[in-house]
């Protein structure tokens, strides 16, 4: 929550646009910066942090440093493809987390059973595909969007 204030103190005010007006969520934009990550602290608050203190080796794709695809798990690979397809059908590739299950059901004409993938909670399943899905915000107002790489 303090990021805009810290940024303003160092560089000047960030331009803020109203929701649904040609803007990008700040959390999504910050993840474009090489060497920077947004992590969730044990308290549940998201913090901006360095991924590493030294630059990556030459010719290293910065997106590969952030997350790997679920190698060897065909169900998660299929789920990843479905998430991409579903989000591409949404305005600005964004969907509220509360709409994910009904939207998935409507889009694919099948239920999304979290237990079929070996998880007990939806959020755990969504966090299992960080190479395609970014979870923005906190609490009940979380949004799902595609990662920059996807």
UniProtKB/TrEMBL annotation:
It is found in: Peroxisome. GO terms for biological process: meiotic cell cycle; oogenesis. InterPro entries: LOTUS-like, MARF1_LOTUS, OST-HTH/LOTUS_dom. GO terms for cellular component: peroxisome. The keyword Nuclease does not apply. It comes from the Eukaryota. Keywords: Differentiation, Meiosis, Oogenesis, Peroxisome, Repeat, RNA-binding. Gene3D superfamilies: LOTUS domain-like. GO terms for molecular function: RNA binding. It holds the Pfam family MARF1_LOTUS. This is Meiosis regulator and mRNA stability factor 1. It comes from Gulo gulo.
């Amino acid at each position: 929550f303090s990021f805009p204030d810290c940024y303003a103190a160092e560089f000047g005010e960030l331009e803020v646009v109203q929701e649904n007006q040609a803007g990008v969520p700040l959390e999504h934009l910050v993840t474009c910066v090489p060497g920077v990550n947004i992590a969730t602290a044990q308290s549940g608050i998201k913090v901006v942090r360095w991924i590493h203190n030294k630059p990556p080796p030459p010719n290293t794709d910065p997106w590969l440093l952030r997350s790997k695809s679920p190698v060897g798990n065909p169900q998660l690979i299929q789920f990843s493809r479905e998430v991409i397809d579903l989000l591409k059908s949404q305005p600005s590739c964004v969907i509220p987390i509360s709409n994910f299950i009904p939207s998935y059901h409507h889009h694919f004409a099948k239920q999304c059973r979290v237990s079929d993938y070996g998880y007990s909670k939806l959020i755990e399943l969504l966090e299992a595909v960080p190479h395609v899905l970014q979870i923005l915000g906190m609490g009940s107002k979380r949004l799902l969007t595609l990662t920059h790489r996807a």
